[in-house]
Amino acid sequence: MIRTLLIGGALTLALAGAAAAQMVPPQPGMDPSTMPPPGVGAPMTAPQYIMAAAQSDQFEIQEGRIAESQAQSPSLRKFGAMMIRDHTMTTKTLQNAIMSTGMPVPPPPPLRPDQIQMIAQLRATGGAEFDRTYVMQQMQSHQQALMVQSSYARMGDAPALRGAASQTVPIVKAHIAMLNQMQPGMGQ
Q1: Distance between CA atoms of 90 and 166, rounded to whole angstroms?
Q2: Which residues are CB-contacts of 45 (< 8 A; sequence separation ≥ 6)?
Q3: 63, 92, 110, 187: which is deepest, by most CB within 10 A?
Q4: Are 10 and 18 in contact (CB under 8 A)?
Q5: What is the biggest distance separating any 2 CA atoms in the chain, rounded to whole angstroms?
Q6: Which residues, in sequence order, are CB contacts of 71 under 8 Å at separation 6+?
Q7: 161-176 burial by CB neighbour count: b if 16+ within 10 A, else e?
């Protein structure tokens, strides 16, 4: 099952990156919750970055709450609590940057369908399988977040938002480093 999840996760990342390279700005009437996450391809606009960063933070916070109460491993429970704290902080950083541009701060966006599916998958597991699934999903989501944040920090169209992205990059990298240390202990 883990091998299937890892292959599916890699495929999701590859498809999301390919789709993002061809991404066009949202059009009136287009449901942004169904758009793939922006990636390294074409530079993101401020609204695209705000949507992607906010969805990422919301996903991490929601999964963190689940892990905080359901993870078998005490270290994963602590990691879940850290996800809530850190991604609440990056959300506030993003909101402050949005306000400094003069744009209104949008309400939290709906999660993407793939994020909703991952949360449902996580809730359907228990015990050691929960822990393995959580780590795998967190690695996948943090790699996507790193692509979004790094890309916008380099090529973003709004300086204040580029600053927020630059502040978020080291936080996401630190989370990935922690996840890399946890993976060997998760078993296959």
Answers
A1: 11
A2: 25, 157
A3: 63
A4: no
A5: 49
A6: 77, 79, 80, 130, 131, 134
A7: bbbbbebbbebbeebb
Q: Which two tokens stand for residue 1?
A: 């099952």
Distance CA 72, CA 51 (A): 32
- Residue-level pLDDT at 182: 87
Q: What is the pLDDT of residues 74-109, one digit of tens each?
A: 999 999 999 999 999 999 999 999 999 999 999 999
Q: pLDDT tens digits for 13-38?
A: 333 333 333 333 333 343 444 444 44
Give the residue carrying structure tokens 């994020």.
115
- Retrieve residue 178's tokens: 């922690």
State the Cα–Cα distance between residues 188 and 186, nearest whole angstrom: 7
Q: Rounded to whole angstroms, how far apart are CA atoms 52 and 19?
A: 14
Which tens digits make up the pLDDT trace of 156-187? Answer: 999 999 999 999 999 999 999 999 998 756 54
Lowest-pLDDT range, 29-33, 68-72, 105-109, 128-132?
Answer: 29-33
d(CA 67, CA 135) in angstroms, rounded, equals 10
